[in-house]
Structures are given as C-alpha cells and as structure tokens.
Amino acid sequence: MGCCSGRCTLAFICGMQLVSVLERQVVDFLGYQWAPLLTNFLHIIVVILGLFGTIQFRPRYVTGYAAWLVVWMTWNVFIICFYLEVGDLSRDSDLVLTFNLSMHRSWWMENGPGCRVTPVTPPPSWAPEDHRYISISGCLMDFQFIEVAHSSLQILLALMGFIYACYVVKLISEEEDSFDFIGGFDSYGYQGPQKTSHLQLQPMYMSK
C-alpha cells in the first residue's frame, strides 16, 4: 500500500512538473530565451523518463530523475538570482539567456498583467533599425518577479519530486529484496512428500 501511495504521489508530481514546464517552455519560446528553452527541453525528457520508471518499477530511471532534479533546482536558483540581479548578475545581459543572438527580454516584460505597451515615435537615434522602441507602463507586477515566481514553483515541485523519488526507490528496492527472499526457497528444488500408491499387483493365471 505504501509503495502504491508513494508511486501515485510521485506520478502526480511528475504530471504537475510537465504541465508547468510546458507553459514555461511556450513563454520562453515567445521571448526568444534560448538557454531556458534548451534546459526546459532536457527537463521534459527526464521527467517523462522518471514517470515511466515510477509506473514500470524501474528504480534506475527514478534515481536518474532524482539526480537531475538537483541540477534543475540549481538552474532555477540561478534564474532567480539573475532576475533579482544578485551580485554582478544583470538581467539586461544578452549573453546569459539568449546567447547574444537577440535583444529580447522576458515575454512577461510586455505581456504582464495590466501592462500597456506604447510605441515611441520617432525612435531614438541609437535604437537599431530592425527593432521597435516602446514604452511599458501600468504593470501590476514587474516581469522579473513573475519570472522569480515561476522559478520558485519549479524549485518547490522539484524538491517534492526529489523527496518522493528517494522514497519510491527505497520502497521498490525493499520489495525486490523481499521477493528475492521468498523466491530463494524454490532454488533448492524442495519437494513435499509424495503420496504412495497402495495398489498391489497380483499374478494372473491363464487357463488352458
């Protein structure tokens, strides 16, 4: 019962992770955030493998899933520090998230709740010709705090997934040990006492 309950909970957590990271993948794609796109893609693959291992009693898959969650939590902590500009990090850097391929920022910068985007005409002389210059106002929440909230949710789900993954691996290993112990009695070829037949053969005489 405990293994079933733990596996069901872990499968539910994996499902929540898939839903949340797919939403994040769409948002990062709209914002041309290439580094998060690649990391999210790896996360989706590993979560699917972890879900498969949970359903099919494959402890190696679940162990690999748990190990990846440590990397995933570290990445999201970095994202939080990046948007909050901890230390020397700057969210205006083009190299970290976009590999210096574009000048785009988070999709939430222009599409956050309550945000009003107003094109500025004429654009400043220093603005690139292939980019528009806009003014953003009225946002109920700044985009960096929305990104921090998304990463915080991922850390929470990853922490829960890590705990339950370790729990499920422990239960599966214990069940495998118990099966090996029970099956050990059959390896000696033990056979119970057999019934002996009481039928006696008597000679038959043929008359001429």
Note down, in words, how this protein is organized.
This is Sodium/potassium-transporting ATPase subunit beta-1-interacting protein. The protein is mainly α and 208 residues long. 60% of the residues lie in helices and 4% in strands. It is built from 6 helices and 2 strands; from the N terminus they run αααααββα. The chain has a two-stranded antiparallel sheet with strand order 1-2. It is elongated, with a radius of gyration of 31 Å.
Provide key terms for this protein.
transmembrane, Na/K-Atpase_Interacting, transmembrane helix, membrane, mainly alpha, 208 residues
- The SSE string, one letter per element, is HHHHHEEH
Number of helix segments?
A: 6
Spatially, the strands of the biggest sheet line up as 1-2
Helix content: 55-70%
Q: So what's the oligomer here?
A: single chain
Q: N-to-C terminal Cα separation, in Å?
A: 77 Å
Specify Rg, calculated over alpha carbons: 31 Å
Q: How many β-strand stretches? A: 2
Give the class from helix and strand content and strand pairing.
mainly alpha
Tell me the β content: under 5%
Membrane topology: Multi-pass membrane protein
Keywords: Cell membrane, Membrane, Transmembrane, Transmembrane helix
Family: Belongs to the NKAIN family.
Pfam families: NKAIN
Fold topology:
Blueprint (H helix, E strand, L loop, with lengths): L1 H29 L3 H22 L3 H25 L11 H4 L9 H4 L4 E4 L14 E4 L5 H41 L25
Antiparallel strand pairs: 1-2
Helix pairs in contact: 1-2, 1-6, 2-3, 3-6
